[in-house]
Specification:
This protein has 440 residues and is α/β, with parallel strands linked by helices. The chain is built from 14 helices and 17 strands. Helices cover 30% and strands 18% of the residues. The chain starts with 20 loop residues before the first strand and ends with a helix.
């Protein structure tokens, strides 16, 4: 039995039984060129150009980049800039929809008969990790297959409220199964483990039924323990393998891929329609009508919320993603991105942070950290500006899951300090490297 660490959360899966509904065409579409880890995509359209659904509007911009396609038919109004949730300026393509949703004439299923054609097709799909990370899928699957013995499918969906993956595993189970069959064939991997938390029995049953005819696929029920969906945690709890600092799952012989990403791969190979829409969970104490919505990528958050009945009270905080790792939305004009799986809005009661008090040295943050780090010691080292200690304490291993802050009885902002400590460590290491270079 593998060691289990983490925290038990209220699931709040209010929309688990909500079959996704398709949103109509929004009034405006704003498509950022940075919806993935890596270099921004480069626009290939200009103001005044007519576009259709699935038409390329941006090409791969270099390392770890991904192409981008129009989610609507209409007219490009301008190439603009917005301030992203990270604070960075990013280029956007702004499109005025015509309401027709005419499909680009060149859309057709790619010809795929071998691994090279499969990867080539995926490089044109615009698909990135749809669980939230946004890692370009074609880059992940281009790994040296001789190193891979297992594909681990992330169906944990461990954050509260979010149920978009849940609906994929129920409504699109056959697409997930077909996608897994493709991955096994073209990557030459004969073992797949689909990890699903045990609070989703309907998903477990659905995926077992859909994959029963494919030899080598195991659907495994995992404890409902946050952050079960973290890559390092999922690989450890399914295979007992430890991904060390600086390593990727590939270094342990594993590819980890989100269940909705797998379903999207299958749909693209069968239809040729690139990634232009996605299912988003809209929920939280400030949302009038929580639901799962299939929404065109680039839809402003406000229009999505209005589609869900608007706000039933004044929201205190709006998040892209879950309540543990989600990012605060500073402006309701912000668009839905490829990797957005949820928009959550909370009232003042749910979003008001508790008062922080002094550390009582209870050790709960260390006990519950899934990677067995010491957040209290990291905090002390950060406050002292002790880069050497931060290095020894392995702060870079922190996945910023928030377990430490959640479990802390003193309600200390430990995860926020860990994030700052990572920056401080990078500065310390850069300074040391320059000094060593100067002494040569």
């Amino acid at each position: 039995m593998f060691r289990l660490s983490g925290v038990r959360l209220r699931h709040c899966k209010n929309t688990a039984d909500c079959v996704p509904v398709r949103m109509g065409v929004p009034k405006k579409i704003v498509i950022p060129m940075s919806m993935h880890i890596g270099a921004p995509a480069r626009p290939v359209v200009k103001a005044g150009d007519a576009v259709k659904v699935g038409q390329p509007i941006a090409e791969n911009g270099g390392g770890l980049s991904s192409p981008i396609y129009s989610s609507v038919s209409g007219t490009v109004k301008k190439i603009d800039e917005i301030i992203a949730v990270t604070g960075a300026k990013i280029t956007t393509v702004v499109i005025e929809p015509d309401g027709e949703q005419a499909v680009y004439e060149e859309i057709k299923p790619p010809v795929v008969t071998n691994r090279e054609e499969f990867l080539s097709a995926l490089s044109n799909s615009g698909i990135v990790g749809l669980g939230g990370a946004g890692f370009p899928t074609t880059v992940k699957l281009s790994a040296d297959v001789s190193k891979i013995d297992t594909i681990v499918v992330n169906g944990a969906e461990c954050e509260p409220y979010i149920t978009s993956d849940t609906r994929t595993m129920i409504d699109d189970a056959d697409a997930v199964a077909d996608g897994l069959a493709m991955l096994m064939k073209y990557l030459e991997v004969d073992r797949v483990i689909v990890g699903i938390e045990n609070n989703k029995p309907q998903c477990i049953a659905s995926m077992k039924k859909a994959t029963a005819h494919i030899q080598g696929i195991e659907v495994r029920s995992l404890p409902s323990l946050y952050p079960q969906g973290g890559e390092k945690v999922l690989v450890y709890h399914t295979l007992g393998r430890t991904i060390k600092e600086g390593q990727l799952p590939l270094d342990c012989g594993v590819i980890v891929i989100n269940c909705t990403t797998v379903a999207t791969i299958s749909k693209y190979i069968k239809t040729g329609m690139p990634l232009v829409e996605r299912c988003v969970t809209v929920d939280g104490s400030a949302i009038a009508e929580p639901k799962n919505v299939i929404v065109p990528i680039g839809t402003p958050v406000l229009e999505l919320i209005e589609f869900c009945g608007g706000f039933k009270c004044q929201p205190r905080k709006i998040l892209m993603g879950g309540p543990m790792m989600g990012i605060s939305v500073p402006d309701l004009t912000m668009p839905v991105l490829k990797q957005n799986n949820a928009i959550l809005a909370f009232d003042r009661k749910d979003a008001t942070p508790p008062k922080e008090t002094a550390c009582i040295k209870c050790g709960k943050c260390m006990e519950r950290c899934p990677l067995k780090l010491s957040p209290c010691d990291i905090s002390a080292a950060y406050k002292k500006g002790d880069g050497a200690s931060l290095e020894k304490l392995k702060v870079n291993l922190c996945m910023e899951c928030g377990c430490c802050s959640f479990i802390c009885p003193a309600k200390r902002n430990l995860v926020q300090t860990n994030k700052l400590a990572k920056v401080a460590l990078r500065e310390y290491q850069t300074k040391n490297a320059r000094q060593k270079e100067g002494n040569k």
